From TrEMBL:
Protein name (database record): Glutamate decarboxylase
Cofactor(s) listed in the protein's UniProt record: pyridoxal 5'-phosphate
Keyword annotations of the record: Decarboxylase, Lyase, Pyridoxal phosphate
Pfam families: Pyridoxal_deC
InterPro entries, A to Z: Group_II_Decarboxylase, PyrdxlP-dep_de-COase, PyrdxlP-dep_Trfase, PyrdxlP-dep_Trfase_major
Similarity annotation: Belongs to the group II decarboxylase family.
GO molecular function: carboxy-lyase activity; pyridoxal phosphate binding
Example GO BP: carboxylic acid metabolic process
Modified residues (N6-(pyridoxal phosphate)lysine): K185
Organism of provenance: Lotharella globosa
Amino acid sequence: FGGGVFFACPRVKNLFCRKKKRKIQISGHVTTGGTEGNLEGIRAGISRFGPESKTLTIYSDQTHASVPKVCETQLRTPTAIVPSLPNGQMDPERLAEVIDVSRNVLSHDKYVLVATIGTTFKGANDDVAALTRAMESVGVNRREDVHVHVDAALNGGFWNLIEDGRAQRLRIGHEIDSLSMSSHKWHGGFVGGVIIMANPADTAIEVPYLGFTDRMASGSRDGMVAPKWHARLRQFDWLEEFRRCEANAHLLLEALRERGIAAHRNDPGVIVVFPKPSDAFCDRFQLAAHGDLAHVCVMPHVSEQIVGAFLEELDHDEGGETVRRMREAEFDW
């Protein structure tokens, strides 16, 4: 009941699974959240290539903290970090350099590439097609030598609903091999997630005293996540919710720019990044800050009125000094 994403959440599966002539086995299950999903996706790639291969797991410097955590503390697998572009995307040219060195100097022959759709702070969407071309440019066979796992914790909820060409198509078993998504980020409410994989290696463990086969990293999960998520998906028109959030994010972005503040947003997405306001203002609005930057996640509960109130308080913060300092600050994008 709690494990079968296909039984209880077919709409989640259908976001990233499209039938093709090539036969592909798709499997997955509800998880406790994004960390377990990333663990399962990376583990699937390592297991696919087997112990006889020298597998390297690669991710960017903008990857969610759960990825290095599970690689270092649970999977104990070699890793490499690829620098990102100013907007937060993994840099394809630097990826090619990392793979070239790993093949010719360190003798790695297989790779698990962790791409992100909606990085934690800048909301960047890694260009999977460009990353694939970069790997192939240095002699890596995408189908035979690479397992592409996508961390789509936030943006996965609306990604494949976008039909205007801005969202790169990502299909399990085609452009990518596994995908992790959270239930509580975009759709909101209960904490949970899902992992979906193509042609996974068999990592099942028989548990005789419980009378079932365990295929999950976490043996205990909330069995109500799947039906709650299924009900949540039916509650709203999620494409319309995204369009409304994106419109409000654009409203905030343009309003900040009209004030002379360098603000940016990765498209498609709902995260607006700008120079950090005063500490008191960040505390009042619970803004996440990283170094000299802060961001706002324009989620479904954020209305046009809330955006207006945010801007009005920003204008008056510290008698206008906050806006003046933000206007003088610059950052590359």
